[in-house]
């Protein structure tokens, strides 16, 4: 089952009024969705239809093309809904590209030629753009954020970005999300898992079993947080997924699915 847990912000009482410390704490409380390990998951970045249904308890969809009405329809089905955004690149077909100053936009991401890497070291220059994306997500009623492209430190971005820069940016993203009542997950970057399983609310992996780093994200299970393990059909057959990956995933308490690389509605799940 899913749970909602409150996170207490610090508050102070300067003695100038009759509000008790307990009352102030209650007023300043911020809550966000914090799922538990083994919750079921699906991921679809195709444009949704209003009639679409999903069997999984958690559904991850595009923050821009998904409407508030579609999010509400998924909630009516009892789903929690995650908003996909890129946090490390800018896509040239998104309407908010003008919120980024030119000096933070770097080289083209070769695997995705419509995207360019961002200089995540310049966090304050990225803040208006990120806040705009988060406000869009909140206005549509999403429960959480999937921030993609956190691995700029291992790519040719045009900037000298280190893994420590990535950690600082992750801290920045987590605070932005949690302060506004949204959950947020780690996307890939398995080397962050030991430290950031205590900070992010779940982890989403791509081809972790195929690439043999599935054990790197086990710290999330130790925190009773989900591992959403996505394998792709261009690397893993349905038979391999069923006979090899599913038993491993079940033993690890991961929520594993097989998807097509284009992340359309098609999904193959463990039985």
TrEMBL record:
Top-rank taxon, per record: Bacteria
Residue numbers spanned by region Disordered: 1-28
Domain Glycoside-hydrolase family GH114 TIM-barrel: 40-266
SUPFAM superfamilies: (Trans)glycosidases (SSF51445)
Annotated Pfam families: Glyco_hydro_114 (PF03537)
Protein known as: Glycoside-hydrolase family GH114 TIM-barrel domain-containing protein
Species name: Pedobacter cryoconitis
